[in-house]
Write a structure and sequence with these properties.
By secondary structure, the protein is an alpha/beta fold. It contains 10 helices and 10 strands. Strands 5-4-1-2-10-9-3-8-7-6 form a 10-stranded mixed beta sheet, sandwiched between helices. The chain binds adenosine-5'-triphosphate (ATP). This is Phosphate ABC transporter ATP-binding protein.
Length: about 280
């Protein structure tokens, strides 16, 4: 059982394996507000173990809002308010006793813009380990994370160089290395390729397919082809403008093939045929 209550040294709290199938994160969003604005309603989203779950839908439908609710990243926005529940391996991540720093160690995040810190490549990867008061072999952890992120061969001779000196695609892989260094169970990726060229995008997509051997992944993407290429499961969101607002909601979630080729809902069908026509 994972403890979400205190910052335990990273090495002392092993990551649950992906041997069993099932749900890693179960989010039952009733409502999400920013101040008085109802941004998302009625969205039950699951991130399954060892799979990639894609979040798709038109701009403003709440994909990023829901994604960022899955590891309490939205806590940093004072006007944010969630009604409903989000459980990680059966535990309520919004429970009073839970430490959001520990949640984010188990559920890491990669953002749209590569955002390495202005520090060395090595220290970028070691950052989360230091935050989590890791006491073991830093060199080994940094190398392993860089290898898993497919970056080791490109940076092994310049680990003391500033991370900001890398190319955009390399910076994004550095951010992935930083996210996986603390041995998370889930990786959340918010449009991780939107700032990258097609070659760097393809590298990250291939990396995602490798990462799902070890991690459960949820990715927000605007790119439907990307969702089809990488996602096992797809959650399609839409925007309700019927009451004069703009409120996002989940239309349906299912196997990616089913969502793209045999959607249950007309809204999904219309969106997908519009995107591909
Ligand atoms: N920090 C915030 N404060 C207030 N409103 C916000 C905030 N972040 C997002 N919103 C609003 O919440 C709604 C959902 O935004 P969100 O970014 O989650 O949608 P999205 O589907 O990811 O959009 P996009 O595809 O354009 O990135 C939008 O109306 C947006 O303007």
């Amino acid at each position: 059982m994972v403890s979400l209550n205190t910052v335990a040294p990273a090495a002392a709290s092993p990551r649950p394996g992906l041997s069993e199938t099932g749900v890693a994160i179960d989010a039952r969003v009733e409502k999400i507000y920013y101040g008085d604005f109802l941004a998302v309603r009625d969205s039950h989203v699951a991130v399954e173990k060892g799979q990639i779950t894609g979040f798709i839908g038109p701009s403003g439908c709440g994909k990023s809002t829901v994604l960022r609710s899955l590891n309490r990243m939205n806590d940093l926005i004072p006007s944010f308010r969630l009604m409903g529940s989000v459980t990680f391996l059966g535990q309520d991540i919004y429970a009073k006793s839970v430490d959001p720093v520990v949640v984010r160690r188990h559920i890491g995040m990669v953002f749209q813009q590569p955002n390495p810190f202005s520090m060395s490549i090595y220290e970028n990867v070691a950052f989360g380990l230091r935050l989590n008061r890791f006491k073991g072999d830093y060199d080994e952890k940094v190398e392993t994370a860089l290898r898993k992120a497919g970056l080791w061969n490109e940076v092994k001779d310049k680990l003391r160089q500033n991370g900001l000196a890398l190319s955009g695609g390399q910076q994004q892989r550095l951010c992935i290395a930083r996210a996986i260094a603390t041995n998370p169970t889930v990786l959340l990726m918010d449009e991780p390729c939107s700032a990258l060229d097609p070659i760097a995008t393809r590298i990250i997509e291939e990396l995602m397919l490798e990462l799902k051997q070890e991690y459960s992944v949820a990715i927000v993407t605007h790119n439907m082809q990307q969702a089809m290429r990488v996602a096992d499961k797809t959650a399609f969101f839409s925007v309700d403008i019927s009451k004069g607002g703009r409120t996002g909601f989940l239309v349906e979630q299912g196997d990616t093939r089913q969502i793209f080729h045999d959607p249950r809902e007309k809204l999904t069908k219309d969106y997908i045929s519009g995107e591909f026509s």
